[in-house]
Amino acid sequence: MNIANFPWLTTILLFPIAASLLLPIIPDKDGKTVRWYSLIVGLIDFALIVYAFYTGYDFSNPDLQLVESYPWLPQLGLNWSVGADGLSMPLILLTGFITTLAVLAAWPVTLKPKLFYFLILSMYGGQIAVFAVQDMLLFFLVWELELVPIYFLLSIWGGKKRQYAATKFILYTAGGSLFILLSALTMGFYGDTVTFDMRVIALKDFGLNLQLLLYAGFLIAYAVKLPIIPLHTWLPDAHGEATAPVHMLLAGILLKMGGYALIRMNAQMLPDAHAYIAPALVVLGVVNIIYAALTSFAQRNLKRKIAYSSISHMGFVLIGIASFTDLGLSGAMLQMVSHGLIGASLFFLVGATYDRTHTLMLDEMGGVGKKMRKIFAMFTTCSMASLALPGMSGFVAELMVFVGFATSDAYNPTFKVIIIFLMAVGVILTPIYLLSMLREIFYGQENEELVSHQALIDAEPREVFIIACLLIPIIGIGFYPKLLTQMYDATTVQLTARLRDSVPTLTAEKAVETVSLSAPIIGH
Fold first, then answer.
1. Which of 375, 335, 414, 417 is nearest to 94 (CA)?
2. Distance between CA 247 and CA 238 in Å, rounded?
3. Are 270 and 214 in contact (CB under 8 A)?
4. Measured between alpha carbons, how far is 333 from 327 in angstroms, rounded to an integer?
């Protein structure tokens, strides 16, 4: 088989979608056949991803690889164009890994299992497509595709306020998607050539004012998905009502789509505008870190507490993207993958804890550590990873963003000192609310009615296996970050060099005028 000519990416993203279409005709009374079928589909697709990338992908090549392009709707200039580089490849691997584990996490689902797994598998292909497609219109279509499964997964299998959470999710994300469509059409029709190929669009000579307008449009859409405060309020509501496997998809993959698109389109395709607006991204990143961490303190609902923790961690991604250093951008990529693993593990454990205690309120918990020792140990370990304990992937990612931003010569020194101080405050806040959470759940005063409950059993082998699968890469990357960074370093170094070429064209006065900040990017 000629690896270079085989349509790997098309196969990888279409296979789970095609497989999901067979679910309605599979004879199954109790849901067991359906779940095994879905797990096998997930494993096969993940195996295809690993095989394709580790045999046909060159880590030293910063450009797109495994490229496929076929005419689809030539009248509209729409092509089926896919490819992978250092920005997309790690996230495609993450998608396959997390989704397969989410299928295994969905084992207890008994309500409409065929529809549930149909939505999971169709979302599997849609999320891979977001990271692989290289056509702007096609990107918009697949971006919209993943909204529908999440809406139904929330509205049918969610909690008491599931309809409200699902409706809020679809309104926020669909509303933001309109800005993607408008910006994509503007970029495609601009100039003498009408094209939606991202590689060709990136070479177009957009004026600075138009770049700023396009950048703002994309930023609104991706700020919803990342999410960036104040466009974040859908996330705590969605997490508050979701089931464990949906939690894993939301925290592990969905948020990363916003970070990826912000790098791919805002930074890579609109570098001059990025140089102007980067200080605003830094400020927004700090707001995410501090505000979400403080808000997490006040949450008495366990799911909402972890949800705000996710928002806080994504602030480091924004700062890394805006750092104009190889190390900072590499840290942003590492933070996305790291948080995908850690967030998925924490939300899965939240679901496992709820299945036993039947409550999410911290005030109603306490003293369950003696009855659920395995869950206690796993929850503690994953919380340590979330608070960036040395030896875990989160520590390496946040350290890279810290040092990358601190060593950037694109910012005013006073501005850097202020931002670094505030980032450090956020890092200090994280262990406080996470350790307090652990104390209230597993230590604290025992709730006699809860502790004596027969359903308060320890973790089963399936649950231990899922957490072990997530902890292996978390710890592996923590001790040897090159396992991951070597996959994208060539691409991020090339992108950073291009971004830095845009910095000297600015003056302090222009940056202040554009973003209304007292700490602009300055020339060299």
1. 335
2. 9
3. yes
4. 10
Which pair of structure tokens corresponds to residue 121? 């598998």
Is residue 77 pLDDT above 80, yes or no?
A: no
Spatial contact of 19 and 121, defined as CB atoms under 8 Å apart: yes
Q: What is the 3-state secondary structure (H, E, C) of 376-426?
A: HHHHHHHHHHHCCCCCCHHHHHHHHHHHHHHCCCCECHHHHHHHHHHHHHH
246-264: average pLDDT: 92
Per-residue pLDDT reduced to its tens digit, 176-227: 999 999 999 999 998 888 888 898 898 888 889 999 999 999 999 999 998 9
pLDDT at position 506: 42
Q: How far apart are CA 312 and CA 73, in angstroms?
A: 41
What is the C-alpha separation between 21 and 16, in angstroms, rounded?
9
Residues in the chain: 524
481 phi/psi in degrees, rounded to 5: -60, -25
pLDDT-derived band of residue 517, with 50, 70 and 90 as boundaries?
Answer: very low
Tell me if the bond preceding 461 is cis, omega within 30° of 0. no
Among 87, 93, 79, 77, smallest CA distance to 8 is for: 93
Give the distance, in angstroms, between the CA of residue 217 and the centroid of all CA atoms in the same chain: 20
Helix, strand or coil, per DSSP, at residue 68: strand
Q: Where are the domains of the chain?
A: 8-515
DSSP state of 159: -
Distance CA 352, CA 162 (A): 19
Q: Give me the pLDDT at residue 131, please.
A: 95
pLDDT digits (tens, 9 = 90+) for 472-482: 999 999 999 99
Asked whether the whole model's pTM tops 0.85, one would answer yes
Token pair for residue 447?
A: 């709730």
* Beta strand segments in 196-300, E: none
In sequence order, the 6+-apart residues with CB closer than 8 A to the CB of 27 are 33
**Pairwise CA distance, residues 159 & 171, whole Å:** 19
In 3-state terms, what secondary structure has residue 135?
Answer: strand
Distance CA 394, CA 388 (A): 5
Q: pLDDT of 103-130, one tens digit each?
A: 999 998 888 899 999 999 999 999 999 9
Q: Which two tokens stand for residue 239?
A: 């997490």
The alpha carbon of 143 is separated from its chain's Cα centroid by a whole number of angstroms, namely 13
How far the first Cα of the chain sits from its last, in Å, is 51
Gap between the Cα atoms of 143 and 257, Å rounded: 9
Residue 1 has pLDDT above 50, yes or no: no
